[in-house]
């Protein structure tokens, strides 16, 4: 994986960059407070990040998203999916990643609210909670930087727009929670409208006037889902475009196995069922085995398997982990990345991982001295 | 690591063994219930395990140990340490591992109790709780099997004997908990005596009459310790020896870093402190960084670092993990196995691991679809 070469390369270029951001003058600041430092990239799977004033620059809007998501799986899946979209437009070799710094907390709060007299910027429709749904549930901004004259310059941006698939509401304070399923056409329509408005607003900032801005639309999973939602469309907006000219469809599905409902692919389900029944008999009391299956264009392209056990001993977990590995190699599909984590109430006990190109699983048993 | 070769080798010998254990007659049982199957060994770091009657043969005595340990770290550390001792006497290439099947639950309970009229087998001294300490706190048995005439035969055993370093007791039911520190010479003396009696008792079983039995003595860590205790002596008893002829001293220490008290090695502490202060500044609110340092013969020989963060975003965790990797490569000692786990209240977020022979860390960020 040329990992060592990359690290060496980056070690040598992990130089301290002086004053960047607002002041583009390139003058060397004497204050430590304007120092920007790059984090060594340890694999080109990942972006390099930015340390500023001695700290990592955390996202300005993320705290809001955390509160907004009753199902935390929507949060991880949204951030993770958006990063994958970003990687196909802003290469990890060329761009430096910066957590969203343009849409700040109070802006995010306003945008996620309903449009009212007091909140004219609200991107959700005016109206009564019980009648008019909240469509926009979360926003994520990712900034892509390049080095110019010893400073970092914003050179690209990706915006994720999370639209509800189910609208949860109360008719009175502390009352029962009602839900309304939103149709796919509503979700698409609203996502595109909101994405367009966000693009227009971002273009008003002179830093963002001419950079490529990718807008990606995400359909939130219901609150009781064991897997996150999925991105369903994106648009690339170059040359200062103020309006999205076209949306590209994305065919992504995330499913939970074993599933009661209709499946994208029966063979995958069967393979998992075989694996599951082999593994489930190992211990007298194994609590559960589920998987998240990730489909792109109808093809399985990734799998996360979660196995929950009681608290067994170190040697029992070692044997179990070896057994799971042999069964995974026998039954689970090859050519896709697979993670398998084995947990008890005490936390993760061991885990296995195989990349799409690898033949063998990497396995690790967590231990203690 | 010859992993693939080993797996191939073992795949081919993962044959079904018929009737073993009590009946050595070698007759082919038709019942599925007496079928023994070997688990493929995925690395020679680990033993092959045994599946019997479709299930893994769990330990007969372990449940008792779980209840006996207020500090669960003593349990993991004890099991893990005992496995390491076993490996140096019963090679993972030659022996098959079986969870302890000879000392069963009720025997363990009796042995861990005080010696009384009703419990003549008790290995703890007769006496009042507030006056006479409980020395023996836990027992672990590990069985090492070889294949003979298509069945598995016990060919070696390791017994771990956990002796308290602090005795906790109440003067009255539900009363305050008092503690009494036990001296090292008491701990040694008691451990050796108890180990001797266990050896004698095991030799009475005809299966165990002539096999090598390794007895290892462990000093339990106090209940408030952030690291487990340590093994301090072992004896190898060959040729049906009924009495331990000599004990080998083991110089093992497990410490927590950063430490307030005296340290085994100041350089290790300094290296860790440098790493810690580099990493701690990364996020505005990083909760804590501690490490378990494992010393053998005064030399650092392993380290587990635990980093606790708030719940940060996927991209924040990726950047942090890359940063931790660069700092660990810069500051932490090489040539020893190092695990670093990064957790939030939501569980493990990412982890890094480097073996003693490896230059680079393996790193994994846990994600969700």
TrEMBL record, chains A, B:
* Signal peptide positions (record): 1-19
Q: Which Pfam families match?
A: CamS
Sorted UniProt keywords: Signal
**UniProt keyword Transcription present:** no
Source domain of life is Bacteria
InterPro entries under this entry? CamS
Question: Could you identify this protein by its name?
Answer: CamS family sex pheromone protein
**Organism this protein belongs to:** Apilactobacillus xinyiensis
